[in-house]
């Protein structure tokens, strides 16, 4: 009798667990939209980046973190930077690879660009092969309400900081040029559609600079390319993190957002010598947003 009761209660419990799951999923779909299914793969490039010394700005989280993780796995030595020491040290602990180091460095403070770059080159053993300009901040206040300080906050990191760091690195390379060097600039889908607020304008800057420097510097052995991500599941898009296992997004034709690892995949390709005939291009990876 006792056994029968146990089976009965187990069935009731399992019924309630399943019903709760169904209701939770329905509530999620109601709140966030359809649950997209997706499949992504990661290419095993072996040690394709062996010996490469890479600086990734803003690598403590999101796209920069995913890229740093993939780069050290592929044999590179990497420095990640950012303003938040705790975030950086935790990222390095988590990735747990002896070739990964961090440096506190606010790229919007141009007065420290030279000294931080010197420290970075020292940490990398006297050289640097690749600069990934990934650090960025967002503000989507609409055109009529943007204040000067909002404009400056976005521009000082996304455009000014990127410009002067790139300039400093290129000056170093032109003085010490021995092999092909690379710059990968992270723009945005917003850099390929009309811009009405500073974030998008700054991403146009990035794509424009990529094109200009691409042509200008390739003869000097510096290859400049970029990536324009669409909506990626990082802290910059809090909604995507809140949605948990639901990757639905209504904003692009694919009807989903992407994972930072998908951008890292493209990043490794552009960093590697497999892409050495590509010049001045920003590869758009946005689920069709900018051409819809
Ligand atoms: N997520 C998207 O949907 C999306 C779409 C298109 C483009 N992007 C671009 O992708 C890049 C990476 O963003 P994410 O999505 O990975 O977001 P994220 O996780 O917020 O990463 C941005 C990183 O930039 C760093 N950062 C911000 N200001 C900085 C400064 N002044 N100096 C140095 N580091 C700074 C932050 O670190 P600290 O806080 O430690 O400074 C953070 O680690 C950005 O350029 C962003 O505009 C993202």
One letter per element, helices H and strands E, the order comes to HEHEHEHEHEHEHHE
Strand order of the largest sheet: 3-2-1-4-5-6-7
> Biggest β-sheet: count, sense, barrel?
7 strands, parallel
- The CATH class is Alpha Beta
CATH topology: Rossmann fold
Bound molecules: NADP nicotinamide-adenine-dinucleotide phosphate
CATH superfamily: NAD(P)-binding Rossmann-like Domain
Form type = globular
Instruction: Label the structural class.
Output: alpha/beta
Number of helices: 8
In helices, the fraction of residues equals: 40-55%
Ranges where pLDDT stays below 50 over 5 or more residues in a row are none
How many domain units?
1
Rounded to an integer in angstroms, the radius of gyration calculated over CA atoms is 22 Å
Q: Assess the beta-strand content as a share of residues.
A: 5-15%
| End-to-end separation | 65 Å
| Annotated CATH architecture | 3-Layer(aba) Sandwich
**What is the typical, i.e. mean, pLDDT?**
94
- How many E strands? 7
Question: What does this entry look like structurally?
Answer:
The protein has 292 residues and is an alpha/beta fold. It has a single domain (44-237, 261-287), classed as NAD(P)-binding Rossmann-like Domain (Rossmann fold, 3-Layer(aba) Sandwich), CATH 3.40.50.720. Helix content is 45%, strand content 13%. It is built from 8 helices and 7 strands, in the order H-E-H-E-H-E-H-E-H-E-H-E-H-H-E. The protein has a 7-stranded parallel beta sheet, with helices on both faces. Strand 1, helix 2 and strand 2 form a beta-alpha-beta unit. It is globular. The N and C termini lie far apart (65 Å). The mean pLDDT is 94. It binds NADP nicotinamide-adenine-dinucleotide phosphate.
């Amino acid at each position: 009798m006792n056994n029968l009761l146990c089976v009965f209660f187990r069935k009731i419990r399992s019924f309630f667990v399943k019903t709760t799951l169904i209701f939770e999923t329905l509530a999620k779909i109601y709140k966030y939209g359809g649950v997209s299914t997706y499949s992504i793969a990661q290419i095993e490039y072996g040690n394709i980046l062996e010996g490469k010394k890479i600086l990734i700005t803003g690598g403590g989280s999101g796209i920069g973190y995913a890229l740093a993780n993939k780069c050290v796995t592929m044999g590179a030595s990497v420095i990640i930077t950012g303003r938040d020491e705790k975030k950086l040290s935790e990222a390095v602990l988590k990735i747990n690879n002896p070739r990964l180091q961090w440096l506190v460095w606010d790229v919007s403070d141009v007065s420290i660009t030279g000294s931080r770059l010197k420290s970075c080159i020292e940490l990398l053993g006297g050289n640097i092969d690749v600069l990934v300009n990934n650090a960025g901040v967002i503000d989507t206040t609409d055109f009529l309400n943007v204040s000067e300080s909002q404009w400056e906050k976005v521009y000082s990191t996304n455009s000014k900081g990127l410009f002067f760091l790139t300039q400093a690195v290129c000056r170093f390379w032109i003085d010490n040029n021995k092999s092909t060097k690379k710059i990968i600039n992270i723009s945005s889908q917003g850099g390929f559609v009309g811009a009405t607020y500073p974030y998008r304008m700054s991403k146009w800057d990035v794509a424009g600079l990529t094109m200009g420097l691409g042509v200008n510097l390739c003869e000097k052995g510096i290859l400049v390319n970029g990536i324009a991500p669409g909506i990626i599941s990082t802290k910059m898009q809090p909604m995507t993190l809140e949605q948990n296992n639901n990757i639905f997004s209504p904003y692009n034709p694919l009807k989903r957002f992407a994972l930072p690892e998908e951008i890292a995949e493209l990043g490794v390709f552009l960093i590697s010598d497999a892409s050495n005939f590509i010049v001045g291009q920003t590869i758009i990876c946005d689920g069709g947003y900018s051409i819809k």
